[in-house]
Amino acid sequence: MVNQSIPSSNVDGPGVPTDCLKTLTDFQSALSTKGYAPTTVKLYTTAACHLHRWLCQKNRTLDSLTNEDVQEFLNNHLLRCQCPFPSSRDVKTVRAGLHHLLGMIERDRPIIPRSGQAISLESVENELRDFDEYLNETCGFADATKTYRRRYVKEFLAHIYGNKSIDPRTLKPRDLIGYVAARAQGCKPGTTGVISGSLRSYFKYLQLRGVVDSSLLCAVPSPPRWKLADYPRVLTEHQLKCFLKSFNVSSPSGIRDYAMALCMTEMGLRASEVAQLDLTNIDWRKSTLQINAAKSRRIRVLPLPARPGEAIARYLRNGRPVTKQRKVFVRHTAPVGTEINAGTVRGAIRRAYARAGFPSNWTGTHLLRHTAATRMHQKGANLKQLADILGHRSIDTTMVYTKVNVAALKLVALPWPEVRP
Asked: pTM, whole model, 2 decimals?
């Protein structure tokens, strides 16, 4: 039951002003609905009240909360806080609570383009509804791909139209070029390429509908990225051992995280594929694992190596909470027993990186996928086999792993010619 005990008073007292009482009450209700314990709900709500009082000192409200505000509150205020009101000083607890609060606020917040004029969420969603169907039915993109493409197209529409009605027929090539050039400031080439690709998908969809001609599609600029110019970062044998030893396999969540890590380091699975593993995907008699790859829309059946198989079996026997959920890996915090997502997998891996002493900028799970692919190639797997295991549609995508197979490259290197007088 939700504790409706948030006091209402002015900002100089221990309570919360009336205009924000609804936001905090909704926050309490959302946490309770998700199954969080009453003690956790109280801690998170208290942290939200503390944050609100801090914002009021800056003449701000919760509705304007950003991730930068949360970071400043945690890093600058909380550690030196001398507020007289009772509130948690535990950074981990407060961070978790404010993360949930920020997520709730951002879901209900209207888009604010750079012009400063709010754009109606309804008009944007109406424009993107058919585009989303195109991404799903015509293109067959994975959920993650659809999410970021909708996101960048939504940002573009907000920037161009503000609070005006959306009419793509009024767009000119210079509008696209100017937007991408401005948006690329401070972005890596890869991020800029994703933004451009999202806009290109949108204008291809509009062209198929006959709304715009090909000039807009061709006008979307892309940053230069030379094929195979980079090589994937991989873990050394020593780093891999340190990484796997960092998991506490005496706890249920540690058993789960260790099994997920082995699925990535030995089988090259993506974080999303690990999160979506179903109990019906495992054939214990044949030692195979079926991967329903959302990204390629193809099902592939992989041999299940001994170590990942044993780790999964141990988790199912000794670590997995009692649940009706059919997914292999489930949550160990509220709501306990529900399915996890790719973010849960990435979080577990990031924490393992930190425990293993890796650089702080190592945050992605593709490092483990690259490591698995490189180790397979070094042990004799050819490119076709590697592409089938990783779920690549083209061998060209897999070619990059030949660049880090130093042992194989040494065999084809020509001797340096001697200089004779």
From this structure: 0.62
Question: Under a CB-based contact definition with an 8 Å cutoff, are residues 262 and 308 in contact?
Answer: yes
Q: List pLDDT tens digits, range 275-285.
A: 999 999 999 99
Question: Given its phi and psi angles, is residue 15 left (phi above 0), alpha (psi -120 to 50 degrees) or beta?
Answer: beta
Whole-angstrom distance, CA of residue 245 vs CA of residue 240: 9
How far, rounded to the nearest angstrom, does the alpha carbon of residue 301 sit from its chain's CA centroid?
Answer: 25
Neighbouring CB atoms inside 10 A of 365's CB total 22
Please state whether beta strands 298-303 and 288-293 pair in parallel, antiparallel, or not at all (unpaired). antiparallel
Superfamily of domain 237-409, CATH level 4: Intergrase catalytic core (1.10.443.10)
Q: How far apart are CA 5 and CA 382, in angstroms?
A: 64
Q: In 10 A of CB 82, how many CB atoms?
A: 5
Q: Which CATH number fits domain 121-219: 1.10.150.130, 3.40.50.300, 1.20.120.450, 1.10.390.10?
A: 1.10.150.130
Q: How far apart are CA 119 and CA 197, in angstroms?
A: 23
Q: Mind listing the pLDDT tens digit for each residue in 324-360?
A: 999 999 999 888 899 998 889 998 999 999 999 998 8
Nearest Cα neighbor of 183 from 161, 160, 217, 150 is 160
